[in-house]
Design brief:
The structure is a homotetramer of 296-residue chains. Chain A is an alpha/beta fold. Chain A is built from twelve helices and nine strands. In chain A, the strands form two sheets. In chain A, strands 3-2-1-4-5-6 form a six-stranded parallel β-sheet, with helices on both faces. The N and C termini of chain A lie far apart (50 Å). Chain B binds chain C through residues 242, 245, 249, 252-253, 255-256, 259-263, 266-267, 269-271, 273-274, 276-277, and chain C through 242, 245, 249, 252-253, 255-256, 259-263, 266-267, 269-271, 273-274, 276-277.
């Protein structure tokens, strides 16, 4: 089995690495947080002192980082990992970043004889823990085949949507639609409640009607409609408002770069920005409902 | 079994009446279109010369009309049906109309000893034909119980969401969210396609991810992604753009009446209005994607 | 000189009546507020016990009321003023109301031999006090000529924009554009300030550039950019957020009634609704800037 | 008097250079268009074979280019002008570009002993021809003083709004507000006309009311309301839709970079994007009114 380096052990990366260990892989990890590294070591990982040490001898390098600049910083530049990753290795970047950044790093990797795929995920922290993530992959088909077994240890669905960067584009399309759907579902529930409807009954109806979505069925934004939702625990946990804001910003940049119009997507971006300014940036993104329903 | 009067045999009312006949009910029908009446008669209905004749002797009166003014015109006023419907009868209005109008007609009905529920539907023409509609009911619980058997002959799910008018509010909440979701899904697909993605692959990924919805899975707005969608037959059939525009207008009025904010809902209303002005008012509402994707 | 009845002595009506008195007119006044009546009486008006008494013997009846329902309530119905206003009199309604309501009351007035014009105003409380209001008139040209001298005692500009109701439509067009311009100016100032610009210098530049407007030059939404603005006194005084919200609601209704699209106008409506929900409904409408700039 | 190099002789740069020549300056020009160079030569300029030749011996270098990438390409890189501009010279960049780009080039210039100010303009082609432009300047006060005399030969107002990049931020604030104001004015006129109002009378009223703006008074978007507007000549000439789209994109990037919300600004960006997709990208930006008024 391949030796794997895993860089970035946050809310997503941590459980993903744990699933690789469970599947029997040898995994060298690095993260700036000692606590995160310690958790991985307890699960069987080998700790590396820095990212360069982590990739030494690895056939597969997986990164799960917050934003484009972290990915560029990790791989490119004089002290970037591309200078030390062995030719013939494969990089799987699971971060959600700008498509242009994914293409840029992939080109630099290819120039050094290293394969790379962008493989951002859908499924959230729950999917990461359960090993049921969806991987949305951009890159060469052959590179994906090399990655498939490893991806299957962390997820359930794999979609190959195109060349390098395409995974990021598709992820942004999904998250943009999700951001709009969540905020629109919040508007609908707020409107119903303001007219005296029971949010639970309204949600049950919507969940089997044409407006059904992950936002009504799984992560309902109204408190106490479903158990185990961020909304039912003060909007804690889940997918942070400012992460959705970041993804909608990436979608807007992707649209502006080609003159596309995404009127609902950009309005949603502004709603999440206002929600952040209202002090809810660190809460789950479903807290955007509070913009239109003070009592939610 | 109750004798039923059915007023309004359009794209929805026609198949609904047919399902009542199939279930063995005696149904007297009226519609301004001779062709619609003829189809119902062929299926076993009795034709009435006018609405008043249709309700003579009926214990249950069902109406399925385009807008508030038609419902008010049918029941209220000097020559309205409330003057001839027998006390003790039950009115089931399945039209999608303003909640205030539903309340007004119900009050007038009650004053004459006639029960009434508002029971707008979700499920479209396909659901009407298959007898799998969802009924979203506002009114007294006892009145709903009187209607239940009849509703079950036409649909699968029945939600009792509150007092008279509440069915309309809930329907508007569903359709508002649906209108936003459809247009946002169109934006996401258009953004992906403009970046070189295959709309079919992108839709398949979204359909199992967090942005999944009726708009990705059932009525995908991109041509040739799914069979049997309006989009795959030139946006013909389905739920007309101008009907969605009407519903979003009703939602906006419901919001304005109580000072609520529905930023995405009202932006969507404007998108469907622009789509109508672009000459696509009679096409399926998923044609709104053409606003942001000329080649769709 | 005509005897005038003046109904509605609020922030606008009070100073308007005072200007009529200054011009030498005999004015009978009515308002639900004793204090408002007392102020008018101190300025020379005659107090009436109710609206019907106020219009007794008046050739001209002026009303300045909050909303459509007040105007309908005043003139129509069994105890409405149309039952007691003398045939041959002229009604000048200066309220900002729904165009359809203005038309309805005018028709009822005409049916009783009473002329009527809708004459909503622009210029705010400052313009009302200074007698520099702009009157935006709908109705017959002959009726406007009968009113002209009286209007000139209260204002500076008179625009005849069409038949009954047209004054209201034009007023809504103005206020809709104003509502958008104010919020957009707030966005621009907030963006500049967040990038380190001085709001005063930025405003001075904008005030002589292509984005110049009443919002940069007269009622700047940023505190302490101009003296004597609501923004510089905690957003008190001025034109209330909820009045702008009302006018944008009327504009939205006017658009929905004919299938028109006003995407920016309806988005602005939602911004003012959110500003109201944030507790700023009674403040000047320029406080909408606080939605995008917490420190403003 | 200083010797000036002028790079970029388009619709704006051409007349600006002509005004410098009129004021007696010695001007060496370069543009990729022979015709543009020939016009400048006929007005007294000296033609240079390329940009590097144009700046030889120049104390002041003025650039007026379409976008960030052109400015970066002109000054930076191995064959960029900074390698040949004489230390002690002053660069005045009048292009509208990203603030971050203006800062980057200024830093590189300073590192080589060259002063630089960003001085984007407001006033359009008419202002460029008449020498009445407004310059919105970011950079050191001392550098602005060196530039002042030259700027006064091309414009009327000079605003110093902050350090390098601040001129670009302020310009974007102005143009973002302008973009919203123009589209909102179009919505208001379209709404009025759809209700039977005369666009000329409505515009005259608005122009002296609280919604007055450059869009009602100078560049009215409705055809034949004012003479000499783009709208009155088929939306030709003026400030192109796609240039406004570019500026709104820069404003959106400036907002996203700091998490700011500009809901109206981004909606306007989408309206201009849709107007471009409708085939009106090269027309004046006031043609955005056609999105909501087919007959305009």
């Amino acid at each position: 089995m391949s030796r794997i380096a895993f860089i970035g052990l946050g809310n997503m990366g941590g459980p993903m690495a744990a699933n690789l260990l469970k599947a029997g892989y040898s995994v060298q990890v690095f993260d700036l947080s000692f606590a995160a590294v310690a958790t991985a070591v307890a699960a069987g990982a080998a700790a590396a002192a820095n990212a360069a040490e982590a990739v030494a001898g690895a056939q597969i390098v997986i990164s799960m980082l917050p934003a484009s600049r972290h990915v560029e910083g990790l791989y490119l530049g004089d002290s970037g990992l591309l200078a030390v990753i062995e030719p013939g290795a494969l990089i799987i970047d699971c971060s959600t970043i700008a498509p242009a950044c994914a293409q840029k790093v992939a080109q630099a990797a290819n120039a050094r004889g290293v394969d790379m795929i962008d493989a951002p995920v859908s499924g959230g922290t729950a999917g990461a823990a359960a090993g049921t993530l969806t991987f949305i992959v951009g890159g060469e088909a052959a590179a994906l085949e090399r990655a498939r077994e490893v991806l299957q240890a962390m997820g359930k669905n794999i979609f190959h949507v195109g060349a390098n960067g395409a995974g990021q584009v598709a992820k942004l399309c999904n998250n943009m639609a999700l951001g709009v759907i969540m905020a629109a579902t919040g508007e609908a529930l707020a409107l119903g409640v303001a007219h005296g409807l029971d949010p639970k009954v309204l949600s049950q109806m919507m969940a089997v009607s044409t407006s059904r979505s992950w936002a009504t069925e799984v992560c309902n934004p109204w408190p106490n409609v479903l158990d185990n939702t961020p909304a039912s625990r003060g909007y804690s946990g889940g997918f942070g408002n400012d992460l959705m804001l970041k993804d909608l910003g990436l979608a807007a940049e992707a649209a502006m770069g080609i003159g596309a119009s995404i009127p609902l997507g950009e309005l949603a971006r502004n709603l999440y920005a206002m929600n952040s300014q209202a002090g809810r940036g660190a809460l789950d993104f479903s807290s955007v409902v509070k913009l239109v329903a003070k009592d939610a």
